[in-house]
Write a structure and sequence with these properties.
about 425 residues, alpha+beta, Porin, 60s Ribosomal Protein L30, Chain: A, 3 domains, 8-stranded antiparallel beta barrel, 3-stranded mixed sheet, 6 helices, about 20% helix, rod-shaped
Length: about 425
């Protein structure tokens, strides 16, 4: 009956703890077969199995006899161990002398332990059976212990043992059947067959499965074993753009470029309008607002028209005015000296050049055919230069002006008449884009 009860307890323990001890602990404790262990345990024995809290199993306080043991363990197979225990029970028990004084009862016991699971489990129930002998009733008496226990793998090859035995006396006249309980710990002292294996790593990425957040797909250690296709340091499982490198701030996506100008919004001073890098992502400026950007606008501070490179277009009225004004430029006869009545005319030319600052002016001097041609050519050059010098004196940049003389070579009227000759003696002015 008592053995049946112990067997029932063993079965329940095996069912409960074998399920609980699976999972992550199987990777944590890796030894297959125990090495050589040495252990120490505290023991309780009861020699009166009729007066217990639960018949034949749990002793009450009055029947409990304390003891201690040294124990040697040795693994034989992944499921089978051998154990030798040397211990003592402190008790006044004597089968033939109920009034014996307290005495030290040494015991020596050898057992085999059959475990339900391999050692690489946190909880491991087992059954045990063996042969032992103790000094009782003034002689050594053999007995046969059978029982159940629980092995707790605290760390690789460091174990906690909880055990309950029923011990059948093989010398009934010297020793009663008894119950025996122990709790102890054992540690390795000689390296045996056991060894720590590398933890499971299904995807072979160097990250153990119990630490790998993506155990079936290889990934770097830094990302806890998860892949990162775009190499941006953000695991694909957390990356909203797993195929394009990005930043964590935007969930693994690139920094946005709202206006699509190739400059990300964090660096773009004009994120909603396409621009260029040299202007911080803003469009090329158009200072005068004429629709022609400053890099293409020859008159960036003055509104103009696109077909005239952003400069104001010279109207027909202005061209005609310049032509009419040039007719009012007079010189002293045979000289390159401007007459006073010409100065007001030249001042109007200054105004026009200031208004059309993007334009240059060409000044051409012409004569009639009176006199020698070479002298006329020289005179026309000097007269054109005189007009240029006057304009310079009024602040016009000399780089904006060109002067040339053509003498009598380009008449516009008949030199045979006085009116024609007067018309041929002239200065022509023309505005041109720079």
């Amino acid at each position: 009956m008592k053995l049946k009860t112990l067997s029932t307890i063993a079965l329940c323990a095996a069912t409960t703890f074998s399920a609980f001890s699976q999972g992550k602990y199987a990777d944590r404790f890796q030894s297959d077969t125990k090495g050589s262990l040495i252990g120490f345990s505290f023991n309780i024995a009861s020699f009166d199995t009729s007066n217990v809290l639960y018949p034949g199993i749990i002793p009450n306080a009055q029947q409990a006899n304390l003891g201690a043991s040294l124990q040697y363990w040795q693994g034989i197979t992944p499921h089978l161990d051998a154990s030798v225990r040397l211990g003592a029970i402190f008790s006044d028990y004597d089968r033939n002398d109920r009034f014996a004084a307290g005495i030290f009862h040494p015991e020596l016991e050898g057992t085999l332990i059959l475990r339900a699971l391999r050692d690489n489990h946190l909880f491991n129930p087992y059954i045990t059976a063996g042969i032992g002998a103790g000094r009782y009733s003034k002689t050594f008496v053999p007995y046969a212990p059978v029982g159940v226990g629980l092995q707790v793998n605290v760390f690789n090859e460091v174990y906690l043992f909880l055990q309950a035995n029923y011990r059948f006396s093989l010398g009934k006249d010297k020793l009663d059947n008894s119950t025996f309980y122990s709790v102890g710990v054992s540690v390795p002292f000689i390296e045996g067959k056991s060894k720590v294996r590398a933890p499971k790593d299904r995807d072979g990425d160097g990250v153990p499965d119990n630490e790998d957040e993506c155990p079936d797909v290889a990934g770097p250690i830094a990302l806890k074993g998860c892949p990162d296709k775009d190499g941006d340091g953000i695991a694909d499982k957390d990356d909203k753009c797993p195929d394009v490198p990005g930043v964590a701030k935007y969930g693994g996506c690139p920094i946005p470029d709202t206006d699509g100008d190739g400059i990300n919004d964090e660096e773009d001073k004009c994120p909603d309008v396409a621009g260029v890098a040299r202007y911080g992502g803003c469009p090329i400026p158009d200072s005068d607002g004429d629709g022609v950007n400053d890099e293409e606008d020859r008159c960036p501070q003055v509104p103009g028209v696109k077909h005239n490179f952003g400069c104001p277009e010279i109207t027909m009225e202005t061209r005609q005015k310049l032509k009419d004004i040039s007719k009012g430029i007079y010189f002293e006869t045979g000289k390159a000296v401007l007459k006073k009545e010409s100065l007001a005319t030249l001042d109007q030319i200054v105004d026009i050049m200031n208004e059309y600052s993007a334009y240059n002016i060409t000044i051409e001097g012409h004569t009639d055919n009176t006199g020698k041609a070479d002298k006329n050519l020289q005179l026309s050059k000097e007269r054109a230069a005189a007009v240029k010098d006057y304009l310079i004196s009024k602040g016009i940049n000399p780089g904006r002006m060109e002067s040339e003389g053509y003498g009598q070579e380009r008449p516009v009227a008949d030199n045979k008449t006085a009116a024609g000759r007067a018309e041929n003696r002239r200065v022509e002015l023309e505005l041109k884009m720079k």
